Amino acid sequence: MRLPKFRYIEPKSIEEASAFLLDEPGAKILAGGTDILPNMKHRVELPSVVINIKKIPELNTIRQDNGVIRIGALTPLKKVYESPIIAENLSALSSAASSVGSYHHQTMGTIGGNICQQNRCKYFNQSQWWRSARPTCFKAGGEICHVVNKEEVCYSAYSGDVAPALMVLDAIIILQSKDNSREMPLDMLFSGNGKAPLNLKEGELLTEITIPGKAKDGFSTYLKSANRESIDFPIVGTAFWASIKKKEYRVAFTAVDRKPLRGGSVEDFLKGKDLSEEVLEEASQIASKEASPVKTSVYSPSYKRKMMGLLLRSAIQEAMGREK
Ligand SMILES: Cc1cc2nc3c(=O)[nH]c(=O)nc-3n(C[C@H](O)[C@H](O)[C@H](O)COP(=O)(O)OP(=O)(O)OC[C@H]3O[C@@H](n4cnc5c(N)ncnc54)[C@H](O)[C@@H]3O)c2cc1C
Ligand code: SF4
């Protein structure tokens, strides 16, 4: 499959990249390219200009600053899960990064590209030839949705592995443009709009992810159910962070909604409790009702809900008996 025609640019700084984004509304960022290039080959993303930011050196770093872990957006996933700072202290993040696609996706793919990846749907992530059998759907520029018959709403599912892990670690992101920089909790990056999943302002890029030192004081894990272990998006992914001593817990899911989802009800239920078999059973039931997935993949919504409960059950089991 061939790429469509586009203009190619290699900026040397964030400011230069942002200026190109502002000048050319049809431009898109390319980091590792493992998400955007297949989408371009499928003709579901057709940027007029591709801005390759991979050569901006300061964005490929992992460092600790007063206990805060700072990860540049262009850090490859392999470098993330191989980093001793992360492997030893933030298991959820290292598990999530090492579960992405195949080894090649982990080597080429960046943490920023993983977070900012496009939402997925079985009617969207297909070749032009496959899609030509049906009217073009809303996300691909048409006027209907093949999943839910409602005007102008796209239900495509956010399916990144890394975002839920970062969410339970209370990650903050830094967004930068030519003249501005702002930071926000990662949760706020996601719009919940399947057609335009990110709350990025014009000219903005994700430049850094920071994880507070307190995240290291708890146990964390990321569990993924996928069709093939060797290379596949999650059917459901569940991230869990627990401070056993303080009886505080955080839960997040992926691939069940238009954005990665915090498990608010199950967190409220767990708060202040010791982890036990009874607690685990009830938490698993509550977790399976945290989302209302629709049929954007070959897996049924009821199967996904069941997996949300089962994965959280296994995550809590892993946490039981820990000291932190
Ligand atoms: C066969 C296959 C299997 C895959 N399996 C998985 C999987 O299991 N789990 C998973 O999570 N993903 C999976 N992916 C998707 C993809 O490989 C990963 O998400 C990867 O981490 C994307 O990173 P990248 O750097 O290659 O992103 P790119 O493709 O370069 O970019 C992805 C998107 O993010 C935007 N972007 C990139 N960097 C920035 C930035 N700094 N600021 C603002 N916007 C930015 C781009 O414009 C683009 O829209 C798979 C892909 C394929 C083809
Ligand atoms: S949910 Fe509907 S509009 Fe969105 S990608 Fe799927 S078919 Fe298209």
Q: Determine the number of helices (DSSP H or I, runs of at least 4 residues).
A: 12
Give the tally of β-strands.
12
Instruction: Please state the average pLDDT score.
Output: 95
Query: How helical, in percent, are the residues?
Result: 25-40%
Structural class by helix and strand composition: alpha+beta
H/E topology pattern: EHEHEEEHHHHHHHEEEEEEEHHH
Distinct ligands, ions and cofactors found in the model: flavin-adenine dinucleotide, iron/sulfur cluster
The biggest beta sheet reads: 5 strands, antiparallel
Q: Uncertain segments of ≥5 residues (pLDDT<50)? A: none
- Strand line-up across the major sheet: 4-5-8-6-7
Tell me the Rg in angstroms.
Answer: 19 Å
Question: What global shape is seen?
Answer: globular
Question: How large a portion of the residues is in β-strands, by DSSP E?
Answer: 15-25%
* First-to-last CA distance: 50 Å
Tell me what the structure shows.
The chain is of the alpha+beta class. 29% of the residues lie in helices and 19% in strands. The protein has 12 helices and 12 strands. The strands form 3 sheets. It has a 5-stranded antiparallel sheet with strand order 4-5-8-6-7. It is globular and about 55 Å long. The site of flavin-adenine dinucleotide (FAD) has 31 residues, from strand 2, helix 2, helix 6, helix 7 and strand 8. This is FAD binding domain-containing protein. GO terms for molecular function: FAD binding; oxidoreductase activity. Pfam families: CO_deh_flav_C, FAD_binding_5. InterPro entries: CO_DH_flav_C (IPR005107), CO_DH_flav_C_dom_sf (IPR036683), Diverse_Substr_Oxidored (IPR051312), FAD-bd_PCMH (IPR016166), FAD-bd_PCMH-like_sf (IPR036318), FAD-bd_PCMH_sub1 (IPR016167), FAD-bd_PCMH_sub2 (IPR016169), Mopterin_DH_FAD-bd (IPR002346).
